[in-house]
Structures
1.
Amino acid sequence: MGQFLKFILATIVGLCLFCFLLFVLLIGIAATSSKESTVKLEPNSVLRLDFAKAMPERSQPPAFSMFSPEKVFEDPPIGLNDFVANIRKAATDDNIKGIYLHLSGIPEGFASLEKIRRELVQFKESEKFIIAYGEVMTQKAYYIGSVADELYLNPQGVVELKGLSTNLSFFKNALDRLEIEPDVFYAGKFKSATEPLRLTQMSEENRTQIRVLLDDLYDNYLTDVSSARNMTKEQMKDIFNGLKVRSAKDAKREKVVDDLLYWDQVEALLRDKLALEDEDDKLNFVKMSKYTKAKSSKKKGNKANKIAVIYAEGDIVTGEGEQTQIGSDRFLKAISKARKNEKTKAIVLRVNSGGGSALASDIMWRELEQAKADGIPVIASMGDVAASGGYYISCNADTILAEENTITGSIGVFGLVCNMEGFFSNKMGLTFDTVKTGNFSDFPMSLMMERPLRAEEKAIFQKSVDDIYDTFLERVATGRGMSVDAVHEVAQGRVWTGTQAKANGLVDVLGGLDQAIEIAATKAGLEEGDYRISSYPTVEDPMTKFLKSIGADVKQDLIKEELGDFYMPYMKMKKFLKMQGVQARMPFEIEVY
């Protein structure tokens, strides 16, 4: 009887849980559907731009989660594509009277910010206003905010103006303590991706390339902000070098902001600009998520002609990969589908990737080569990063475009094998034994557990890395119309900004995705308005994303909470240990602050 009652109770609990899940899913689907209809705007509105959330290359569908009720109705991430399109749309929208920039921390790279900033400069030609306000402005936030007609700071706020820097984590001492011995094989003296495993600080070659990279980014930064604030570059540089802005009052004194105001004062200023005299008149802000669904006056174009934009964002991996990765199988299908569609007249490859698997990179390179063989123009457009494997898949395009602040190049490869014998034996108490029929029967599978590499095995690994590097050089040389020696001079794993890459022959044009699409249309013989854009690969629907997120979000949140400040080093180490095969990957996790 007791077992029967337990069974009945378990069944009831299961049904209740199922009903709850179904209820949540239906609510999410209903919320998603309700947001898909065209939004009608009120007159006298202000487009509000927030930058706190990470911005993918293209917008994502709505997502919902049973584990976080506050996320069920969360606005979907707005991609750089729609963010820029909305600014352009607002310039000719009679309902939008101006733009308000809400400034704080901005996670995007400088190439994305350069594109957004350029679009805001273009918006100003509409003679509509741009007002910016922040309480704590990072350097990236100030880069965007400097374009505004009026830039305000909270009286107790901070503007961070100190110059650019990057910080790399090194794990050698930790690996020594854990008795993990990495064997690293690389081609190119600047191929520094594995330095965190074998050194305790940057090599001179790596320090040099990062210094040159930062100097170019810094020079572009100073040029743009000094011009916007009506200063000379030297005046602005003096403010940075002397750390002259340490308080809000300093910011006003040095004229890096126009005034110090609280939010209610900024709000009153906006009301004046909109001629809202009655206190009951609502100050109507329009969020990007809402404005994306506002009707556009732009015509869709001829659906018989399509330009396929293939978004390649994330780490390059073999197989299907996750949505945040560039999986060779998934992208092979996407490229193949695009090139075999008779309506496709050109392909634009939009790359935002620091690379990854050399094999996966070559698989995608081959499919793009097939598209060119079919007579389809292929244009590469680089985002924040298009380095190593990201450059590999771009190198044979008919035209390569990059932003001035794009990080690209890093033409080089490396391989990694970790000897875990000491860790397993001395730290974990595990030992292993092997029976084999030949000298190399356990190569390389048992190496991580049982023994270090022999000299002849190291030679085999290095030869494989060198061969792939030679192939990489040949791919670039063919695509760029250069000699292999000339490519080698600017390769060797070294990273460049878009400006430097153009000077070195690795990039053709400095510009963004829109220009890449225009060039693709021209090469395909299409005029403006005579084509439509098709995006690849297909973005997962909300239901699929929800089902995949069950358990993963909870696990990730628990790890974050437990590790705290050590979470990022943990993730970097985990990323290293998950690498398989020879890698075409840029210097590890360069982040510019």
2.
Amino acid sequence: MLYAPYVKRLALGALLIFPIFSDLCAMTFKEKLSAIRLQMAADGVAAYIIPSADPHMSEYLPAHYKCIPFVTGFTGSVSTVVITPDFAGLWTDSRYFEQAEAQLKDSGFELVKLKTQGMPEYITWLAEKLPNKASLAFDESLVSVFLGELLRQQLAFKGIQFHHHDYLGPIWENRPKLPSNPAFLIPEAVVGQSLQEKLSAVRRVMDRQHATAHLISSLDDIAWLFNLRGADVQFNPVVLAFALITANQCTLYLQRSKFSEEDLHTLATADVTVLAYDAVAQDLQYLPAESSLLLDPRKNCLALYRLIPTSVIKILDANPSTGLKAKKNAVEIANTRNTMIKDGVALTKFLKWIDDQVGQQEITEISAAAQLRAFRAEQEGFIGESFNTIAAYKAHGALPHYGSTAESNVALEKDGLFLVDSGGQYRYGTTDITRVIPLGNITDEEATDYTLVLKAMINGCRARFPKGTCGYQIDAITRNSMWEHALNYGHGTGHGVGFFLNVHEGPQIFNPSATTVPIELGMITSIEPGIYRPGKHGIRIENLVLAVPDQSNAFNEFYAFEALTLAPIDTTLVKKELLEKVQIDWLNNYHENVYAKLSPFLDAEHQQFLAKMTTAL
């Protein structure tokens, strides 16, 4: 285990619990909740927090850290659980309301609906419910430094006492082990920069911030910096690791057996020392007195932070690598453009397959997603999906993060709308695309909603904006045409996308929050507005865009977006009267480019289909 000081406590907890619940494999969610409350009572804890996180503050988690699904049955990727002696709640946002209500049924846990996506509103609830000087516990390896400080600040007026406890370990029999999948280095020719060049760039930022050392826990930052990829987390080609960098030393903490001898030699040649994954805990404790450590408070866990000697100066700021990897270099951009052609070919084949086969053979949400993956797998360099495909028919489309299961899976018919949000991981880039496929008998409301979502997406894609513009401004530009019709959506407009890395990548984000991260040249971001009508349909259309130079004049330097995604957008249900000429022109030009780029890689039958799909409005 990573944190040796806590092993004894877990063992003692196990002695308390195991005699009570002998058949832990068959424990219900209510029994797990009772087991947690027994431990809380023994420790005098008034509330216990379970975040959706791991020691690397990841969004997508290895099975070992899927604590909330284990405790509650809820499988959404963003949530927080709070347990008290008389209440157990799961806080999540509007993307998951219907999913959570279904999955939490009879679990002993209640859904608490977030008013604002991404906000820790449970802290306000705790401030209202907890008595003065109450004890609040959580596993410090799953809580970021930032969140730990936020809890301390917002609950200080009540004198709340904080404690580290892991109440899941003692009751989680047959818990999945930490992954041990192989890791590999990718060549400079693919990523455009050597490990040495990236380390030099990070060290220059360290120098400016007067940091003598830098701790990195976030897996995508480590993967980018070391040109490292793996398969420790589903959909994200990352490796469980930590890194500690000084002016003349660099240590990578991960399981050495993951690497080939050739890759170990390459790292050694670059003066990178490879040590055991959990050795980072000891090395942090022996940082020199009066040294200064740079670490990102949102991407490092509180447990590691507490190991740092008090004599070490802590510089809390974003990882330098986060901003550096967001700005794709010329090689990454060229490879991404080629990857989009491969992905567009797969999408075109899929759209034709749906058009040909619905009504001719049984196609379900699950089988459709499998067929799309098969078309992607035909493409050179395909590694896997970049996230779990959202294949949502009719009313399921109103669930923005719907995931079809054996219980919810339905067959497609020649009726209604089919939303498909999917992506691929290729050795030369990462894709994320959403298209809505009309299957027949489209209503006026569906056509209107579709056209307004398309209009909003085009407005975002065709935006021209001055240098220094932030994501919330692009978010407003995208939403404006929908606001004119008193329509809105509860999720963000866009997220950054990595290069053969995480499909969700910061620091830029297009959403209503006033995040002061400017859009910089080379950033790849999604634009994906939507309209969701529960019980009816959901519509979302998504392209990835690249920030490129536009023009400079006396007023400013202006940027624009290049649409990277290459796949047809269905126009058969578009209400042309709701679009302005600039939007029609953009769509026609986009489709002309899609046909020009994809048709050379398609046979005559698929070329004919694509020509029809991209016919000018």
3.
Amino acid sequence: MEGPDHARGPGSRRVNDPGLLTAWSRLLLGSLKEAGVSQLVLSPGSRSTPFVAAAVHEGLIIHDVIDERAAAFFALGQARITGRPSLLLCTSGTAGAHYFPALLEAEAAHLPLLVLTADRPFGLIGCGAPQTLDQSHLFGHHVRGHFELGGPDPSPTAFLGLRRVAVQAVALSQGPTPGPVHLNARADKPLEPVEPGPGLAAEVAAIRARPLTRYQAGVVAPDPKAVAELSQLLRKATRPLLALGPQPIGAAQDRPELLRLLEGGGLVTYAESTSQHRARQVGHLLNIVHSVERLDLDPDLVVELGAPPTSTAYAKMLARSRPQRVVVKQHGHSDPQQDATLLIAANPGQVLGQLERPRLSSTFFDRWAEAEVEAAQALSAELKEGAPSELGMVEALLARAPAEAVWVLGNSLAVRHLDLLPGRKSPLLALSQRGVSGIDGLVAGTAGAASLDPRPYLLLLGDVSLLHDLTSLGLLHRPAPTVVVVLNNNGGHIFDQLPIARTSAWPQLAPHFITPHGRSFGPAAQLFGLRYHRVEAPAAFEAALDEAFGGSGPSLIEGVVPEDGAQVLARRLAQRRPQKE
């Protein structure tokens, strides 16, 4: 009888210890912290009580964000700037579902993110209990991994397993293919923290005293044969084009390798603002040069680094000329045209570092340089008009934003206007949301990145994007300047650029696409405590920028521009460009 009595005695004490949930929650949150998680983004709720208390006990840095959707984009912004996963924590029910848009972006953009959803016990599932749904695999196949933790289990094996899961979850979020990871943890009432008894406390302390397993990812290097093949293609090409699409902010460290490749000229290079490499070089005005067909400037080889460029002119050029195309991107099958010659799944900077610098004929390069002189003249003529315009305001941003500022670029027209302009001599640092290219969560993402970065921040976005994330303006408060510039053309006028706008049905359809709102953002700025400027004249816009970046804290500058400005600009640039073949 001694064996069974002995097994039942200590085990029952652990099961009946009122501090079991507290000990289990602390072990989970503490292990995640030991595995490398320091930031927790929290939305309030009751069922997550034990995990909140554990996070406070374990010393995680907590960011309180009321709205779960904004919280998720906030955490995503942190991942963009650090490359490390933050932990999202919410209560049960629909709360976790609000994380989904940001998780989809994390999945597509290969950004690390951890989600901990608090849940009801298994016994309350499927019986009409309030705020209860089946949260297991809540995010389907859009996460890199899902861990159903269940409820507290007092066995030493379960405690060790909880530590191991923390390591696995953090590691899985970071590679080999970074992305979101979901943990679902169940808690039964009472939820409030209770100190565990001496026996349980000693057992957990002994487990935590063991060193946590360290996870070391393998190093993936470019295949030398693939790099050699790309070098050979560059040598043989007579009209090569290097195209740099959206890349993470860390790609800025690859600039020396890119400049080495470009030494001596001969390689036409189009780098978008989201690539971390856009600067004044032959190829930077592609969007104006190819605003009309220039068959003499079509490439026979394109080398893409990073995600696919967003430029419509670039896409049309590819569809027309069908060049050989090599894509270099570390994660994902980046080939929307589905006709790439070669895909190299490697870090673009490493590939650049191993490429032979090609000796190229100057003919194609010189033709491009000549075309860009004409394009620059057309652009200068537009900017000299002096009337309120999106392009003029973006040009002022390039001239007046601090060199050390981090730019956050919204989708739709804002980033396209930036890519029309020559850019600065030194490329800007830019965060962008090009995974699934949504307009949601841009303000929250900016707030998240800025929360861990002392540099000035500039968010450039459109009015519909800002309306989509208006409450996140309240998350922007910090000492350093955080400047939100909204280009207000009263709706989503990117649709004016699409083929539907050239149909006879457009007058009837336009309101359902453009969704004109007739609103100004002053009351929102007042509600959330931001300095506010509503400007139309270029001089007033420049003065507002100087004041915003010269001060501290958050500012909102609303640049009011004509509703048809982008459409008129595209037409006039095309008219001023001589068409050649």
